[in-house]
Design a protein that fits this description.
Layout: E1 4-9, H1 15-28, H2 33-37, E2 41-46, H3 62-74, E3 79-82, H4 92-102, H5 104-111, E4 114-115, E5 121-125, E6 134-138, H6 139-142, E7 146-156, E8 160-162, H7 164-167, H8 176-183, H9 187-201, E9 205-215, E10 223-233, H10 236-246, H11 255-262, E11 273-275, H12 293-296, H13 304-311, E12 314-317, H14 327-331, E13 337-338, E14 346-347, H15 357-361, E15 367-370, H16 373-378
Parallel strand pairs: 1-11, 2-3, 2-7, 3-4, 7-9
Antiparallel strand pairs: 1-10, 5-6, 7-8, 9-10, 12-15, 13-14
Bound molecules: iron/sulfur cluster (SF4) (2 copies).
Length: about 375
């Protein structure tokens, strides 16, 4: 197991400085860029959750992608592609709008590399999977000789953090994501799916953009926090352990890290070989949905739905901010949100699975998470 993590200081998104910092990281990891990238088809996978401008801090910064893509191209990669499957639809017009808004189009042009428009997917067997033995992967990622996972340092309503491991969910195309949410409504099952995906994809390098981080109501509506750090690690799980620690979290409280420990693919914090200063910031992190399997045995079955409502967080809609765009209704896995375009949606929270896709994908910051008092007491 490769336990090396490099934590680099970087206080600006200036391309020249980012290039220097990335080179420094590659040197510290003893990765000769020419040998590492040369002759390969390299896919750079940023976090492109929504078509948001870089200054919103929702997506991986385009200047980081440009700096990285330039290094990859200059070191004679056979082909370099930037791409992600977003939270919304996976089709050409939406990708075009996404690349434009997030600055990826400009970044790709400046670095002389292409953006992905291949919409195919590949049904990929993974017999070692704990919760999935086959997973549909976007073809452009499946075809990569080298996958570089370029995540964003943010909080997340369901999994508490969205760093390296959660970023790989973007390898699953469009609506398939909702199917997974539907089939894995227990948070630990969903987290184990993320671990399966990470074990299947095995990115050669994970880079986490924490120059401008996000806390609070992440991953799309939180508060920006200038952190000034970039994390680089060959093992995606090690990158996330370091990231959790930097955010002031006990890594064991992060569902994807907890599940990774079960399949023994995780470097424990004490075993990490860290170059640079982890430090420890105080991040405002959502409590996340908690596993209630054990509590289930103590509660009569007929009380369970009511109990869930009393302890688990639920989405709260702010109708003053809602524009009726319909994004939440289109992507609610159990379809408990309905409504005509440009009208306030109608929600039946009783039938919900608390996946928080509505909160994640709302472009207007109109959805937040609310945990009832009893939940705050039990899961304190
Ligand atoms: S209402 Fe929101 S949290 Fe509930 S199931 Fe739908 S998308 Fe998920
Ligand atoms: S995604 Fe947000 S803005 Fe759009 S309809 Fe839902 S709550 Fe309203």
């Amino acid at each position: 197991m490769d336990n090396r993590v490099v934590v680099l200081d970087c206080d600006s998104y200036e391309v020249g400085q980012l290039k220097k910092v990335l080179q420094e990281g590659l040197n510290a990891l003893q990765l000769d860029p020419h040998l590492f990238f040369g002759g390969k088809k390299v896919v750079l996978k940023p976090n492109l959750l929504l078509p948001k401008k870089p200054e919103n801090g929702v997506t991986t910064h385009p200047n980081l992608m440009q700096a990285l893509a330039e290094i990859v191209r200059e070191n004679k990669a056979r082909e370099t592609v930037i791409g992600d499957t977003p939270g919304g639809p996976f089709n050409r017009p939406y990708l075009k709008a996404l690349y434009l808004a997030t600055g990826m189009e400009k970044a790709g042009q400046a670095a002389g590399v292409s953006l992905n428009y291949n919409l195919n997917e590949v049904d990929t067997p993974f017999p070692q999977g704990r919760v999935m033995k086959r997973i549909n992967i976007a073809a452009f990622i499946h075809e990569a000789d080298l996958l570089i996972n370029v995540a964003k340092l943010k909080t997340h309503g369901l999994t508490r953090i969205t760093g390296g491991v959660k970023n790989l969910f973007g390898a699953v195309p469009g609506v398939k994501k909702a199917e997974f949410h539907m089939n894995m409504s227990e948070v630990n099952d969903f987290a184990m799916l993320m671990v399966d995906l990470a074990r299947l994809l095995q990115p050669a390098l994970t880079i986490i953009d924490g120059v401008q981080a996000m806390e609070g109501n992440g991953p799309s509506s939180g508060t920006l926090k200038g952190l000034g750090k970039i994390i680089m690690a060959p093992n995606v799980f090690a990158a996330d352990v370091a990231m959790a620690r930097i955010m002031g979290l006990n890594p064991g409280e992060v569902p994807t890290i907890k599940m990774a420990e079960k399949v023994d693919c995780l470097a424990r914090l004490a075993d990490l070989d860290v170059v640079g200063e982890l430090g420890e910031e105080k991040f405002e992190v959502p409590g996340g949905k908690r596993e209630i399997k054990r509590l289930r045995n103590l509660i009569p079955k007929s009380w369970l739905p009511r109990f869930q409502t009393m302890v688990q967080p639920t989405p709260r809609f702010n109708w003053d901010l809602c524009t009726g765009c319909g994004m939440c209704a289109q992507h609610c896995p159990p379809a408990v949100i309905s409504g005509a375009p440009e009208k306030r949606p109608v929600i039946d929270l009783e039938g919900g699975i608390r996946c928080f896709c509505c909160q994640e994908l709302c472009p207007e910051k109109a959805v937040t998470l609310y945990r009832p008092l009893l939940g705050r007491i039990i899961f304190r």
